């Protein structure tokens, strides 16, 4: 069964901390994505990557960065966590737009 | 610009009722794909259906059916004889062929099916 795995289900961090959210896929997909989900706003794209070491900004990249050193792993980094980054973070991967995405289970991050 | 609108924020029905979730999209492309995903309380989004812009045939899968109408830019989702297990957040999404795989999601509709 194909999988996208997010390392943490729940995370609580303090304001100003550097936070790493990890995502690993076992489908050999080229494309990987990070979204955040907030009530009433749906899913908003933070960053995405089409290949190793490549990254593109999504719609709300401010306050975030990403790393893709290996094809299967795509990390989201909050350089200095703030309370407005409290959210559900969803990672996804895809082969082509034709097939949509496979999602991870999400990481619910609370910044206090 | 591409956009997906799900005007219904929350819907509550009683088990066995039929329910339709609306989805309206905007795009300038002639080739695009539309999707529906289900997000149960566990959090993981589950793929339900994909439709390309050249295929306007309606689709039925068990109790689920989808109505795609290019004339009104809508891709609505109907659950027949709803069940408690259908309770979830449902997302409609759009992907343009020339947009390198990005999915644009609607705001989501929370469906509550009461016993």
Task: Give the SSE map.
The complex is a heterodimer of chains A (112) and B (115).
Chain A: E1 4-6, E2 10-13, E3 19-21, E4 23-25, E5 31-38, E6 42-49, E7 56-57, E8 64-70, E9 73-78, E10 87-94, E11 102-103, E12 107-111
Chain B: E1 3-5, E2 10-14, E3 19-21, E4 24-26, E5 32-39, E6 46-52, E7 59-61, E8 64-69, E9 74-79, E10 88-96, E11 104-105, E12 109-114
Parallel strand pairs in B: 2-12
Antiparallel strand pairs in B: 1-4, 3-9, 5-6, 5-10, 7-8, 8-9, 10-11, 10-12
SSE string of chain A: EEEEEEEEEEEE
- Gross morphology of chain A is globular
By secondary-structure content and strand pairing, the structural class of chain B works out as mainly beta
Total strand segments of chain B: 12
Distance between the termini of chain A: 36 Å
Number of helices of chain A: 0
Q: Helical region count of chain B? A: 0
Task: Please provide the ordered H/E string of secondary-structure elements of chain B.
Answer: EEEEEEEEEEEE
Radius of gyration of chain A: 13 Å
* Percentage of residues in DSSP E strands of chain A: over 45%
Low-confidence stretches of chain A: none
Estimate percent helicity of chain B. Answer: under 10%
The biggest sheet of chain A amounts to: 7 strands, mixed
């Amino acid at each position: 069964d194909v999988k996208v795995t997010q390392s943490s289900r729940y995370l609580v961090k303090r304001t100003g901390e550097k936070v790493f959210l990890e995502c690993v896929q076992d489908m050999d997909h080229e494309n990987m994505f990070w979204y955040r989900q907030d009530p009433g706003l749906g899913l908003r794209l933070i960053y995405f990557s089409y290949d190793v070491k490549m990254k593109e900004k999504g719609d709300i990249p401010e306050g975030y960065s990403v790393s893709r050193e290996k094809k299967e792993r795509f990390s989201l980094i909050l350089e200095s966590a703030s309370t407005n980054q409290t959210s559900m973070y969803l990672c996804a991967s895809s082969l082509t737009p034709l097939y949509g995405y496979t999602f991870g289970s999400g990481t619910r991050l609370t910044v206090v | 610009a591409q956009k997906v609108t799900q005007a219904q924020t929350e819907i509550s029905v009683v088990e066995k009722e039929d329910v339709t979730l609306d989805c309206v999209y905007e795009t300038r492309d002639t080739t695009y794909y539309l999707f529906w995903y289900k997000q149960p309380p566990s959090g993981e989004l589950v793929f339900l259906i994909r439709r390309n812009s050249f295929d306007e045939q309606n689709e039925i899968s068990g109790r689920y059916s989808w109505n795609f109408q290019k004339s009104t830019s809508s891709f609505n989702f109907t659950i027949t004889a709803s069940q408690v297990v259908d309770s979830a957040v449902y997302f409609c999404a759009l992907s343009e062929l020339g947009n390198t795989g990005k999915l644009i999601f609607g705001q989501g509709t929370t469906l509550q099916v009461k016993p």
